[in-house]
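Page 42, continued from yesterday. The earlier attempt failed because a stray header line got pasted into the input along with the sequence. Redoing it now with the clean sequence only.
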Amino acid sequence: MATAQMSRRGFLKSMGAVTAAAAMAGPGSLPQAVAKEHTMKFGLYGINMGPCNVPAVAARVAQAAEAAGFDSLWAGEHVVLPDPQVPPSPVPASFPVLDPALTFAFIAGQTKQVRLGTGILILPQRNPLVLRPGGCEGWRGIR
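This time it went through. Structure tokens are written below.
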């Protein structure tokens, strides 16, 4: 019996299916350990684009996503868009895309525990010491 458990434990660990603690669990507790360890998490992309370029809308969307159980909110960045739009450009040049850092600074104050992440952040094009003047202009007075 000990040989069978060692081989089962080794197989599960080698397959990456469970952690060592779950692999050592008894036969009845293995499915629960696997389910607890491998829970799917959902994120919402685009918190700084389109309709969410309005602070009140971004706050409502972020709070609704958090209340619905989303694990994370994601933002992207497009600093240059061709005008007129040509393939493979994803959106026209007039599409509103807010600065991810400013958006996250605002959203962090509107949510409790949702994680924030960037899909794209073009660091070489940013000055680390200076935010552009007026960058937060539309976000003032929003609580």
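Notes: The first strand starts at residue 43 and ends at 45.
Reminder to self: strip header lines before submitting.
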